[in-house]
Records
---
Amino acid sequence: MMIDELEKISDSSIMRDNLDFRFFLAGTWKNSSSGKTIEIKNPYNQELIGTVSACSTEEADQVITIAKENLECWIEKTQRERADILRNAAKLMKEWADPLGYILMKEIGKPLKSAKSEIIRTSELFEATAEAGLQQEGEAIYGDTFKGFGKDKISMTYRVPLGVILCIGPFNYPFNLTGSKIAPALMAGNTVVVKPPSQGAITPLFFGLILEKAGLPPGVMNIITGRGSEIGDYLVQHPLVNMISFTGSSETGKHLANVAGMKPLLLELGGKDAAIVLDDANLELTADAIVSGAFSYSGQRCTAVKRVLPMPGIADQLIELAKNKILNLKVGNPEENANIGPLISSHQCDYVQGLIDDALEKGSTLICGNKREDNIMWPTLLDNVTTEMRIAWEEPFGPVLPFIRVHSAEEAIEISNKSEYGLQGMIFTENIDLAFNIAQELEVGTVQVNGKSERGPDHFPFLGTKSSGLGTQGIKYSIEAMSRPKVIVMNLSERGKLVKNCKY
Ligand code: NAP
Ligand code: G3H
C-alpha cells in the first residue's frame, strides 16, 4: 500500500531502494556509508513505514560543505528566479498533497485530513514566501540628523543572506515546520541543510524531489537524516553553518543554544498555553475553542491549550460543556480521521500517564478519560488541579487538559506568568477593554482574545518568550531572521557638488 502511494509520485523510486530511503546531497540520492538505518514505524499499529539512513558525521560534513560551495551562485540568482522556484514547488505540493499526506499520516499518526492540510498549508506558505520576498525593500538615509553630518553622507541599506542555514524540525509538523524554514531561507538567498526529525523523516525527504523538479539547482538544499543525539551537535557546531533555525522541545533548544557558540539562532520551543475564562465569556464558543485547541492531533502541538483558568461563576458550567464535547471525540485510527490517535511513542504515553497519576494522587478530580490502549490515550479532563501538581506546569504533549480554578483575573495572570514557558495565552470574555488590559500583562509571545492558541496564519509573527523560544518566525519575520542588513555609506566629496543659489 505504501509503495503504491509512493509510486503515485513520479520518479520517487530514485529516493529509495524498496522501503529504504536515501539522503539528499547535491541533487543526488545517496546511501549512507554508515550502513546504519532508523526504522520508522506507524505509531498507531507499529507497521514498518520505511527506514532512513543514520548518516555519519563525515556525511554531515559533506552536506554542509556542498551547501557552502553552492552559496555564491545561489546569491547571484535574482529574487524573481528564486520566487519562481518556490511557486513551482508550491504547485507540486498541491498536486501531491494526497500521497504526501498519506505518508505523513502513516509516519506520525496525524489524522489523514490534518496531514493533507499540513501539505496544502506548506504549499501556501511557499507561495506567500515568494510574494513576501519580492516585496522586500531597503532604505537610504541622509546623515544630517546629527550635528556635524550633512546630505553628503548617505547610508544605503539592503539585506543579504547569512550563508548556510541549518534547519531542524520536530516530529509533530515534520513537513510544514521544515518547509517554513526552507522557503524563507532560500528566498533570502541562503543555501540550506535540513535535518528532519527521526520520527517523521520520510515526508520531509520529499522536499528534495519537489525542489529539484521545481528547478532548484543541485546542492542549494540538502537533506541529511540521522539521530539528533548522534549527528546533531556536529551539525550545529560545524564552522560552515552560519545560522540555525530550530523547532522542537525547550530542552533540546537550550542545549543547542549552549553548544552553538555565536551563531544566530531562531528557536521555536515548547509551551504551556493558558486559557483565562472570565465570568462573562460566551461559554459555547469557549468550550469549542478549548476542546479543539487542547485535543487536536491528540494534544501534540506546541500551541495546544494546556491549562484552563476559569473564574468561579462559570467553572462548573464550562467543565460540563467541555466534558460533553470531549465525550464526542472519536478515538482510534488516524487513517479514519479519528480526533484522538496514537501518541508518537509509548515513552511519551508513559510520561503523560505520570502527569495524570501525579494529579490524581494529589487530589484532582477526574472528569473523563484516563484510559490507555497501546499508544492511544483517551482524552482526559482534570478538574480542581492545584499549583502543587506537575500538570499545572509541565508540557504533556498529549491529550490531557487541567482546569485550575481561580478567583480573580489577577490570580489568573499570576499563574499564567509563573510558567517557565511563554508561547501564547488566551482570554475569553465579552469585555474587550478588560481583555486588552489582561493581554498586556501576560508574558507570552501572542495573546488570543476569544480564540484558541495557534500559530497560523503563517504570515502572522510567531514567537515565544522565556523557555518558549528565541527570535520571531512568520513569513516576513523569518526572511528577516535569515538575512542581515548590509550598509554602504556614500561619502560624497566637494568634487561633484552642484552650485545652488540658496539665500540662507
Ligand atoms: P525534540 O525532541 O527536541 O526534537 C526536535 C528536533 O531536534 C528533532 O529533529 C531531533 O532529532 C533534533 N535533535 C535532537 N537532539 C539534537 C541535537 N543535539 N542537536 C540538534 N538537533 C537535535 O522535539 P520533538 O519531540 O520532535 O517535538 C516536540 C517538542 O517541540 C514539544 O516540546 C513542542 O512544544 C515543541 N514544538 C514547538 C513548536 C513551536 O513552534 N514553538 C512547534 C512544534 C513543536 P531526532 O528526532 O533525530 O532526535
Ligand atoms: O506544534 C507547534 C506548532 O507550531 C503549532 O502550530 O498552532 O498551527 O498547530 P499550529
Note: The radius of gyration is 25 Å.
---
Amino acid sequence: MAPTVVSSWNDFDPLKHVIVGRADHTCIPPAEPATEAKVPEDSDMRGLWGPRPLETIEKANAQLDHLVSVLEARGVKVDRPELLQWNQAVHTPDFSTGTMFGCMPPRDVLLTVGKEILSAPMSFRCRYFEYLAYHSLMQRYFDEDPNFRWEQAPRPRLTDASYKAGYFDDITIEERLKRTASLNFVTTEHEPLFDAADVCRIGKDLFCQHGLTTNRRGMAWLQRHYAAHRVHAVNFPGDPYPIHIDATFVPLRPGLIINNPNRRLPEDQRRIFEANDWEIIDAAQPAHTEPPPLCYSSVWLSMNCLVLDHHTVCVEASETHQLEQLDKLGFEVIPVPFRDAYPFGGGLHCATADVYREGKCEDYFPHQISGTRIE
Ligand code: DAV
C-alpha cells in the first residue's frame, strides 16, 4: 500500500513531517490597501519597500536552518519551499504591486486539514502568488500519496472593491481597538478572503479569527468546503492589528489553550470551551518590550510556539517567561533561537506548516453552544 504522506487534524498531535520556510529574497512590499493595516504608525518600516538587507536574510536563514536541525534530530522530516525571486512586480487583470513578499511563513498560506492541503486566498496583493513556492512539494505529495487532496481556495480578484477606502487614514490605536471590537475591518465582504494562519484547527472544529485578513465570506467558504467540520468565528477585541490567530490563541494539548492576556476571547465565545472542559489560561508575558527591527509582528510572537506532541514544545530561546510557563505546565521545552527570523513573517509556528501529525479527527467539542458557528 502506498504510504500516507499528508495528514494533520490539529496543532498538538505528534509531528512527523513539516515544511519550514526560507528567508531568501524576502521583500518589504510597497504599501497597498491591506498592508497599510498591519504596519504600525511608528514602525521603522513605514515608507520603505524592496528587498530586505542581505545580512538580515543570512541571519534569519541561519536560525531557520537551526530549527530544521532541531526538528530532524527529533525524527521530524522537513521539507523546504522552492525559491522564487520575490523582488518582481506583479500584474494581474485587477491589480499591480511593486514586489511580492516571501516564503518564510508557510503557515500563512497553507492550511492542512486531514488529508488535504489548501492554499488560502490571501488578502494582501503582494502575497497573491506565494503558493507557487510550495507547488513542487504539493506535486511530490500528490505523486507519493494517492489520498492526498491538493486544493486551492477560489483565487480572489483583490480589486479596490475588496478593501474599504481610507480605512487607515489618521487612525489611532484607540480607534483600531474600537473597530476590532465592532468587527469593522479593512477588507469588505466583496469576495471570500482568509489567510490559513487565521484558522486554529482542533479536530472537528475549526476556529477562525475574524480580523484584517479573514472576512465572513471566507469563513462561509471554509464551512461549505469542510462540510464535515464545524467552523466557528472568533474575535479578539484587545488586538489593534488582528492578523493571524497564532500569537493570540494557541492550543497546547487536548483541553488546554493559552490566550494572549491583552486579547482575551470574549465571554460568550468562551462558553463552547468551558462546556467541553477546555481550559483557557493567560499566556506568559513576552520577555521583550519591542519586536526586532523591520518586524511586522508584535512582541507576542513569544507565544507562537511549535508543539511537537502533547508533552514537547519548541519556544523561542529568549522568551524566558514563556519557557517557564510551559515548563510548569509539564512540557519538555526546547528553546530555539528565532528572533532574527521574526521580521520575515513570524515565529516558530508561523515558520512551519504541517504535513503529517499522528492521530485522527477527534470531536473535542461534543457539546456545541450557539454563538460562534458559521452557518
Ligand atoms: O501579534 O503580531 C503575529 C502573527 C503572525 N503570523 C502579532 C500576530
Note: Residues 105, 197, 243-244, 246-247, 297-298, 300, 346, 350 surround delta-amino valeric acid (CB under 6 Å).
